[in-house]
Amino acid sequence: MKDNINPQHYKNQPVECIEFTKHMGFLLGNAFKYVWRYKDKNGKEDLKKAEWYLKKWLECGKFEVKNIPNAFKNLDKCKFEMFHYQALRNILLAEEGKELYGKREECAKNALQMVRILMGEV
């Protein structure tokens, strides 16, 4: 029986996607979700959605910091390919507020670059 409420493409890793996004703001949470599921659902369309949300976050100028202490440890349990993993990791870094090259925005830009690389793979 097909589960349209919590479908398999959110549960295809040792840690479910919701365990990350529940700690995130709307824009980066959606970007994370679309990168997470792109291979199992809508491919390039999901990556374009992730790109859109990342751009909106960069334009917003309001950077809400969340406490996501276990997110990085949980992401390491998942088996994503390199660019897929790097996109999700950089979204988490942007959300958490870690300094990467001195700016949170740089993390979102790095995630955007990874999403664009992934679009070329689809």
Describe the structure.
With 122 residues, the protein is an all-alpha fold. The protein contains six helices and no strands. The protein has helices spanning 18-21, 26-37, 44-60, 71-77, 82-96, 104-121. The protein starts with 17 loop residues before the first helix and ends with a helix. The model has no long low-confidence stretch (mean pLDDT 84).
Which features characterize this protein?
single chain; 122 residues; mainly alpha; 6 helices; globular
Give the topology:
Elements: H1 18-21, H2 26-37, H3 44-60, H4 71-77, H5 82-96, H6 104-121
Helix pairs in contact: 2-3, 2-5, 3-6, 5-6
Task: Give a brief description.
The chain has 122 residues and is mostly helical. The protein has six helices and no strands. Helix 2 runs antiparallel to helix 3, helix 3 (44-60) runs antiparallel to helix 6 and helix 5 (82-96) packs antiparallel against helix 6.
Spell out the helices and strands N to C: HHHHHH
Number of helical segments with 4 or more residues: 6
Q: What general outline do the C-alpha atoms trace?
A: globular
What would you report as the Rg, rounded to the nearest angstrom?
Answer: 13 Å
Helix content: 55-70%
Unreliable residue stretches: none
Query: Residue-averaged pLDDT, rounded?
Result: 84
Strand residue content: under 5%
Q: What does the main sheet amount to?
A: none
Overall structural class, as computed from helix and strand content, comes to mainly alpha
What quaternary form is this?
Answer: single chain
Number of strands: 0
Kindly, what is the distance between the CA atoms of the first and last residues, rounded to a whole number of angstroms? 28 Å
